[in-house]
Design a protein that fits this description.
Number of helices: 18
Pfam family, one: Citrate_synt
Number of strands: 6
Helix content: 40-55%
Order of helices and strands: EEEHEEEHHHHHHHHHHHHHHHHH
InterPro entries: Citrate_synth-like_lrg_a-sub, Citrate_synth-like_sm_a-sub, Citrate_synthase, Citrate_synthase_AS, Citrate_synthase_bac-typ, Citrate_synthase_sf, Citrate_synthase_typ-I
GO molecular function: citrate synthase activity
Strand order of the largest sheet: 1-2-3
Strand content: 5-15%
Largest sheet: 3 strands, antiparallel
Family: Belongs to the citrate synthase family.
Low-confidence stretches: none
Structural class: mainly alpha
Keywords: Acyltransferase, Transferase, Tricarboxylic acid cycle
């Protein structure tokens, strides 16, 4: 017999089915709750609400587990490439050699951006944040690349997915080049996805970019670690907007806008700004830890804690190791890394941080890696967006293929005025 939960409201008791996932997670299905009782649930921030079932990503916040399609993220970071991981997330399985080759060819084939889009880029203010530009331009892609004729629905979706995955990377590099007043560097068919991005970012007629395999590997790992993370804020935004049956570009544009926030994708930029502030104040992290523990002080340690993880973020461990490796390979000494390590060392031994499950997350070290690679701070969140793109696409695709995908329509508990009369303007005090 299937497990059920019994809910009693007044003198009425109803049974609600318990849904059990493949990893043993349990959820109470309340889809008939309002219909049977007239009552809804209230869950600010949706921390206890499952909005869907999904076969893409599994997280266990207590154990520090993250798996894409069942494969631990540590294995993918060690053995896979970003393109291979993107294929896994979007299509459900690791690609064969032929499938990977064809996928890579499609990414190169669709990497160019329509020349007329340059006019859009040129008309953004130079001070515009790259995330605002990227969100706008992704939405605009629909105008330049409308519905494809003469293809099956599956063929059209596959081309649209690869087109988006490829062009977002190109547009990100374009935005950077144009913000500096430099000529745009076009993608090259003989370079891989990640290599093309680095070349488009940093190549110039004056100083041709020299590809470094260690930096290339670091970029692959960075994007793999950010490729998906279950139903986070931006992914939920993609699913919510997608549930209205908008085109993929509009749904992804919404995800980019959500990711922009400092409590989400913008956190890696905020970590660097925090470390720079500590450096400007002598480099001693102790006073800032004290400030973070003071409830009356608005200061907070960026890069610590997570809504799901109650232990060390598994991605943070990998990023910390990559940080050391990149700086060693480049023979660089970044004083911010010294401050970050000291900050972590003090914080993880402090009872306050232990009791509140405040451990470093992936944002804590990722910004230092990006700095070492030459990525400017205002591009950090864009880098996150490129990495998260396969996850957004996979989540949208999964929802679109579900015949029971309903329009997202949360309810509310109204706490405003009750029925009131209209007061003519002359009578208003």
């Amino acid at each position: 017999m299937s497990e059920v939960a019994k809910l009693t409201i007044g003198d009425q008791t109803i049974e609600l089915p318990v849904v059990i996932g493949t990893e043993g997670e349990k959820a109470i299905d309340i889809s008939v709750l309002r219909q049977k009782t007239g009552v809804i649930t209230l869950d600010p921030g949706f921390a206890n609400t499952g909005s869907c079932t999904s076969a893409i990503t599994f997280m266990d916040g207590e154990q520090g587990i993250l798996r894409y399609r069942g494969i631990p993220v540590q294995e993918l970071a060690e053995k896979s490439t970003f393109v291979e991981t993107a294929y896994l997330l979007i299509n459900g399985d690791l690609p064969t050699r032929n499938q990977l080759s064809r996928f890579s060819e499609l990414l190169n084939e669709h990497s160019l951006v329509h020349e007329d889009m340059h006019l859009f880029f040129n008309n953004f203010p130079r001070s515009a944040h790259p995330m605002g530009i990227l969100s706008s331009m992704v939405n605009a892609l629909r105008s330049f690349y409308p519905t494809l004729e003469g293809l099956t629905e599956k063929e059209e979706i596959n081309i649209t997915l690869t087109r988006l995955l490829s062009k977002v990377r190109t547009m990100a590099a374009m935005a950077y080049k144009m913000s500096r007043g430099h000529a745009v560097v076009y993608p090259r068919p003989n370079l891989s996805y990640c290599a093309n991005f680095l070349n488009m970012m940093f190549d110039s007629p004056v100083k041709p970019y020299k590809m470094d395999e260690d930096l290339l590997r670091a970029l692959n790992v960075f994007w793999i670690l950010h490729a998906d993370h279950e139903q986070n804020c931006s992914t939920a935004a993609v699913r919510l907007v997608g549930s209205a049956r908008v085109n993929l570009y509009a749904a992804i544009s919404a995800g980019i806008a959500a990711l922009w926030g400092p409590l989400h994708g913008g956190a890696n930029q905020k970590v660097i700004e925090m470390l720079e502030m500590i450096q400007e104040n002598g480099g001693d992290a102790t006073p800032f830890i004290k400030k973070a523990k003071d409830r009356n002080d608005p200061f907070r340690l960026m890069g610590f804690g997570h809504r799901v993880y109650k232990t060390y973020d598994p991605r943070a461990k990998i990023m910390k190791e990559m940080c050391d490796k990149v700086l060693r390979v480049l023979n660089l000494h970044d004083p911010l890394l010294d401050i970050a390590k000291k900050l972590e060392e003090v914080a993880v031994e402090d009872p306050y941080f232990k009791d509140h499950n405040l451990y470093p997350n992936v944002d804590f070290y990722s910004g230092i890696v990006l700095r070492a690679m030459g990525i400017p701070t205002n591009m950090f969140t864009v880098m996150f967006a490129i990495g998260r793109l396969p996850g957004w696409i996979a989540q949208w695709k999964e929802g679109a293929s579900d015949p029971n995908w309903k329009l997202y329509r949360p309810r509310q508990i109204y706490i405003g005025r009750t029925d009131s009369r209209f007061v003519p303007i002359d009578e208003r005090g």
